[in-house]
Every structure is written in structure tokens, then in C-alpha cells.
Amino acid sequence: PAERPKKRSIEDAVRAIIADNPLLNSRQIKERLLGRDYGFEKLGRFTIYSLLRRLGLNTREKRLYYAWQQEKKAHRAKQ
After folding, report:
1. pTM greater than 0.70 (yes/no)
2. Under a CB-based contact definition with an 8 Å cutoff, are residues 48 and 29 in contact?
């Protein structure tokens, strides 16, 4: 039997997806969340968009800035 991925909150999952690839749109983020890596079920595109708005990541520019900040933090932690 395949092991299920460790369940994390949807907010953390969305942040991880955006940090990995900030150029994805809400539909593509939804597809990743529904995939076997994250294992969420029954998510609508409007739900994802609302979540992005709540997190302050609803525009591509904001997602790029967030990803840049995360990369900068990771780089500082390595030093």
C-alpha cells in the first residue's frame, strides 16, 4: 500500500507550492494540491483564490515577492 503524505494545513501547502514556483495561477495551484504530493480533496478554484487573497498572495507579483523572500531566508540560513 502506498503511504499517504503527512497532512499539513492548506495554508502551509499553498505557501510551499508558491515558494517552489510562484508563476503558477490558481488553477495550477489547485491541481498540485489535488495531486498525490499533497492529497487534498474537493477544492474549488474559488476556494484557492479566496485563500490566496487571505494570505496576501493573490497576484503574480505578490507571489514572486514571497518566493524571493523565502529564497533569501533559505540563503541566509545556509551561511
Report:
1. yes
2. yes
What nine digits make up the cell of 18? 508558491
Cα distance between residue 31 and residue 60, in whole Å = 17
Q: Is the pLDDT of residue 70 over 90?
A: yes
Report the alpha-carbon distance of residue 69 to residue 48 in Å, rounded. Answer: 22
Q: What is the rounded distance in angstroms from the CA atom of residue 73 to the CA atom of residue 36?
A: 28
Contact 51, 10 (CB under 8 A): yes
pLDDT digits (tens, 9 = 90+) for 38-52: 888 888 889 999 999
Find the helix packing angle between 45-55 and 10-20, rounded to 10°.
80
Residue 79 amino acid letter = Q
